[in-house]
Each structure stands twice: as structure tokens, then as C-alpha cells.
Amino acid sequence: MDKSKIKVCVGLSGGVDSSVAAYLLKKEGYDVFAMFMQNWHDADATLHGDCEWEEDRFVAEMVARKIGIPFFFVDLSKKYRQRVVDYMFDEYAKGRTPNPDVLCNREIKFDAFMEVALKYGADYVATGHYVRKEEGPDGLWRILEGTDPNKDQSYFLCQLSQEQLSRAMFPIGNLTKPEVRHIAKEAELPSAEKKDSQGICFVGKVDLPTFLKQKLESVEGDIVEVYDAWYAQDSLYKGQQELLTSLLKPGKELDRTVHYAPEEKVLTSDGKPLGECPFQGLENLSDNQLKMLSTPLSYDIAFETETYRSGKHHIKKTRWKANPYGVIAGRHEGAQFYTIGQRKGLRVGGHADPVFVIATDTEKNIVYVGEGHNHKGLSRFCLRVAPEEIHWIRPDLSMKAGEMRRQRVRIRYRQPLQSATLIMRESGLYILFDAPQRGISPGQFAVWYNDDEMTGSGVI
What we know:
The chain contains 10 helices and 20 strands. By secondary structure, it is of the alpha+beta class. α1 runs parallel beside α2 (about 50-65), α1 crosses α6 (about 175-185) and α3 runs antiparallel to α4 (about 100-120).
């Protein structure tokens, strides 16, 4: 293969990862050109308050000049706002937790940006993602975890299609971050010492409530702390616990403690089980039972007032009656600004342990919280992905109704992969974890892996 005849467009961001990707491709003999995309204009929303993209573009140009490749600029801010930012606002308004980085890759980097690159004559588009790509059976493409376990970014590419993958290149997927830094320093690239970007893809680091208030109205509401007593009388919670307990194998106990220590990687390509599933008889579960297990808890705690006399003048005052199921613990500025599992920004004091958001009700504008890492409302065992939201990266691996499969799953970037059983039914894909998962929220992407291959994803 004459690499000099293969034209590759590198999405040059000004960061060290994409810079080294461009450098390596040029060194290998490809016909490389760089393109910087501007996706955001509004500096008022960022914490730094300046136009970070201008500095990034300046560095990207210097990198291209150092490597000796053509440099182009494209403004995709209109499409980015329509496809990514508006999606964010809409999801948060519904009380869901979106992931803009996943959408940015599917809708912008490997769609709108790729479209422009192809018009410039590119055969491929390369990025600085820490992820590997290999050709699998029948010419289908596989996405594998990056070699660096601390930087693996496969999660962000979980919605890519085979068509998009056929045009994608990931030159640094086999490298670790220290190796990338070393290459950049050796090549004297201007981005060698540049810090990694943080925050929302192409927007930067933002104060999320402030950012969302650009479109979402701020309306004060109650923060309700839920006590343990509530779960003892809730039929859904009790039903879930009883069913899970009945499914346990002999000698197993239902542990509600969330353990997020790095998992032991177990290979499954030879058919060996992925660890030991604590449950049995999962094939006998009815659709109604699976729906019950995957249904998030909802809270409806009514508070009543009472009048009393206070002080030596016996002034008449009103207060909330004591409630065994919970207490109004504070006020918030809008339920849509909070996500399940959130700890910061609640301003709820007087607790020995941290307080977390366990649920939000955007219609009633109530935020529900619980104290402690092991609060009953903070974790769940099961989630559901609707049929229309299931995405198979490799169509040949798609599951049919009635099929079950052991996989490793994560529901957020950087979460250690968790052992789980995937159960496919006509009503959707149910993911039953071996251990409880903290902060499962509608709108998140669940992503599943076989060995180190990412095989599919779906919106919870």
C-alpha cells in the first residue's frame, strides 16, 4: 500500500493528543492535512470567560506548521448548537442526564466534520482518541479499548456506525498518555506541554447551572430528604428486593454497597463466564418482572403544616408537621439543574455523611436527596434500554428477543467496567448488574463490552 496516496484529514484541536496523531501519520508517509473546527462562540458561559478556541486554533496552526502539513479552518458552530447543545437543554429540561461528548462524536466529528473533510478530498478522518480500531469478521469494524486504561475513550465513540468507522483512524490508540507526551516533546511540538481540555466538548469548563440558565428558567422548589422508613412501605422497592433475593444463588446475599474498585478483567472470547453471576433463573423472568426491576423509584411524600404558639407573647406561627418518611431539607433553583448521584451544590447541612440527589421531579419541581453512600435510593441493580435506542456497533452481534449474554458494562466515562447480564426482550434490552450501581439516570448512555471490544450502547 502506497500511503502517500492516502489522504488523511486530522481533526487538529490544539491539544497534544491530536497533534501527535497528525505527527505520526505524517511520519508514516500518509498525505496529511489538518482541519480545526470551531464549534462554540459564546465565551460568557465558560468559567475562564475568554475565547479559548482562539488560543487552541493558534496552537493548532503552529503544530501544523511544525509538522509541515496544510491547515484549514471550518466553523461548525451552527450545527453543533442544533445537534448537541439544543439536545443538552432539551434533555435537562426533562430531568434527564445527557452526554454531549457522545453526541459530539456521532453528530459532529464523524458526521458534519467528516463531510467537510471528504469534500477536501480526504479518504479518512483521524482524531486523537485513545481507542483502537480493527477489522473484524465479514469486513466489519471493531472498536477496542485504548491501550492506556487511564485514558481509554471508547465510551465516547459508542454511537458510531460502521460507515463512520470505515473512514476513521485512531493513531494513538496503542499508546499511553506518557508515551504521547514523550513523542510530542521529542518532536518539539508546540502542544507538548498543553494541559488536557476539560468540561463540555468544544464548550470548555462551565458552571452547569449557569450554562443551562441561558435557556432553562430558574424556579425555586423544595429539596426533600428521604428517610429509610419510606422504603419499608414502598411496594415497588419491596417488590424489587424480594424478586432479586429470590433469584440469588445459594450462599449469595443481596449486597447494596456500591463497590467501584477497578474490576478484574476476565476474558470471554473462549466462552468462559464473565465472573460468577450471583443470580440464577434469569431466563424465566417475565417481561413484567423485568420492567418492575428496571423501573426507577419515584417519591411522593406529602407534608402538612400545623400552627403553634411561640415565645412569651405566644405569637402564632406555622411549621411543617414531623413526617416519618422525610423532611423538607432545603431549597433549590430548579429541579432540571440537578442530576441523580450529584453531591455538590445542594447546600443541605447538618449531616454526618454526604448528601446525594436520589431523584428529581421536574413537573413538581422537587429534588429528592438521601444521606450516605449506601442510601437505599442511590443505587439500582437493573436498567432498561428501549428498542429504538439500542445501537449495535457490529450488526452481526445484535441480540434477538429471548437471548441472554454476559458482558461488562459502564454507564459513565471512567467508571470501571461492571459485570452484568444482558437480557433481550421485545420490550427492550434489560441490563441486570451483578452488583448495585450508583446514580443510574435516564438519558445516560449504557455501553457494553465483550473482552476489550465495545459491542453496543443505548440510552437509558
